[in-house]
Specification:
Helix content is about 20%, strand content about 35%. The chain is built from two helices and six strands. The radius of gyration is 13 Å and the shape is globular.
Length: about 110
């Protein structure tokens, strides 16, 4: 639903209102590092319904392929609220941090 060329380990959780997608969290391969890159979006008309947290948690349940995940802005707060540890790795995005994935299975 979100990407034209999904990778083998890409994950997306999407919430629909009928046929209209209104919230998505996607975990895809970062083209620069090979780590996971997470993005969260909720349509402004649907904010306040906890959809970001629900889609984030669903994606993270299935994120065991990714050892490190890059996040910026709101997703950074979501990782920190769930107790994920940051690691000292560079990333090329605005306000980004890299997190050690607690769900990683190797």
């Amino acid at each position: 639903d979100a990407y034209l060329y999904p990778g083998d380990h890409d994950i997306a959780a999407v919430v629909y209102d009928g046929k209209l997608p209104v919230a998505i969290t996607a975990l895809t391969e970062d083209q620069y590092t090979g780590n996971g890159l997470i993005n969260v979006f909720v349509n402004s008309w649907y904010r306040g319904l906890n959809l970001a947290n629900k889609t984030f948690d669903k994606v993270m349940e299935h994120s065991d392929h990714w050892e490190y995940i890059i996040a910026s802005r709101v997703p950074v707060k979501m990782f920190k609220a769930r107790g994920y540890e940051t690691v000292d790795m560079g990333c090329g995005y605005v306000d980004c941090q890299v997190f050690k994935n607690k769900n990683y299975k190797g």
